What does this fold into?
Amino acid sequence: MDLIVATLLIVGALVGTWAATGVLLRLLRVRAILDHPNERSSHAAPTPRGGGLAVIGVTLACWAVAAAWGAVSGSAVWPLIGLAFGLAMVSWADDLRGLGPLPRLAAQAAAVAVALAVLPLELSFICVIDPVIVIGGVGLAWLWFVNLFNFMDGIDGLASVECATVAGGAALVGLVGGIGDGTPLLAAILAASALGFLVWNWHPAKLFLGDVGSVPMGYLLGWLLLLLAAHGDWAAAVILPGYFLVDASVTLARRGFRGEAVWRAHHEHFYQQAVEAGASHATVSSAVLVTNLALVGCALLSLGGPTRQAIMAACALVIVGVLLWYLRRADAA
It folds into this structure.
């Protein structure tokens, strides 16, 4: 029965997001909630924005059903659902009116801090550092992940591909690693919702996620990765989002060293340079898909093995390879 329920939830997330996005697309067009292109945009025509309402709405609904059914721990899921929903509403207000960087960051920091305070997260594998320092570091890492996911949502299909592959990879790692607290089911539901949205978001995109999608999506992914790390699969938790981590961190570090405002929109990410050089959104997002599938394989190989360092080195080579390919496209333009 548990397998049947899990399958129904995953398929329901996929089909539900696909259907809800189609309905939402018509509403966004009627209300003219559009992302108008500007000098920093990667799209040429006004495109509806706010598709994340469907993705996050369906995901949280399925998580709620899983918690109510007893397939996952309600004590961990219910607070997270509330926090993600609140973060989505703040992000939706930002999509509609623009809140500025400080209110956005304050809302994200509050969601992270409350989650770490009230949700069960066993970090005993980090046993040589003061717990306060550990929790502070984990909170900052989670907050950074939320923002980098938002920063990287810049071309058709990219964020959806990243969410589907990272969440799907987390589900596989949880299953192979024997995590029995429902983490694999939660991850699989999020991956299925991302795939349902990708049908509409693949190039040429019919609508965009908006901050209402990318911010809570990064928040939920960050929590799932923390759960993997808490179960001892820290290498997999670092490997799975490796491409986004490297592209965003390197790009933002370069901007920071030049004294530029790192929170402002720009076109300096590696994937953006490839698009500006003439590569299509589909080509670039496909490259990330292939890269992430390789990272999922590496994450699975890292489970409990003595060769984690070699596997992580191989992942670094994979990520550097795709970044160099992007730069090669840009240099050839």
Observations:
- Residues 2-30 form the longest helix (29 residues).
- The first strand starts at residue 34 and ends at 35.
- DSSP finds 13 helices and two strands in the chain.
